[in-house]
Amino acid sequence: MTEKNVFITGAGGGIGKETALLFAEHGATVFLNDLPDSKGVYEVQSIIEDRGGRCELKLGDISSSIEVRNMFKDIERLDVLVNNGGILQESSFLEIEDEDWDRMMKVHLYGTFYCAREALRIMMKSKCGRIINISSDLGQIGCENLAHYSAAKGGIIALTKSLAREFSSQGILVNSVAPGGTLTPMVTALGENYIKEEAARYPIQRLATPCEIAEAIFFLSTESASFITGQVLGVNGGGVMNG
User: Among 110, 114, 149, 202, which one carries the catalytic annotation?
Assistant: First the structure.
């Protein structure tokens, strides 16, 4: 991974944090995105720099096309984009307000679209690159009380396949990692009862660690995954088994 340039959204915690640390450990220069008020992204920056790694902050809201454009405008070469930024809100379907639905779509689906569009403009210059979109097992199977989240993640899966069909012949591979329940700060904030009930859904009977998801993301960026595109890599403890 030496001398690779990697852009990671939502890098201030959870999966994004562990992914950023893993890429930096392998010699990449990591562009760290999160909201400007994120304390976590500064901590990730400090860890990487203390370990002798290279990183640069790219703060901004991925739900804004203008802010995304500004984040990417000074990047001349990009090898990997990890669209990881997201939010989580548990709500019954009939209690989802219009603004809740819109915000979920803007952060997850629009954010992935905006970042992928800017990244592809850069990657097309060198005719190579990897885009890894973080979806969810809920985007494949749905979930009660998380309809808006599930719909947004399902949209990311469809977008991933469309981009793979359009750009893979030009040397840019596009895939998705669809985690099952993962012990990120967003999930732990929902409480122990939620975590216990969630873990019971999986044959492995536990939730993933962010490090386990980061390893899958990293794999898709390597030469070992050079013949993989348009795929959904389910890191879900057996929660989704396609026949």
Answer: 149
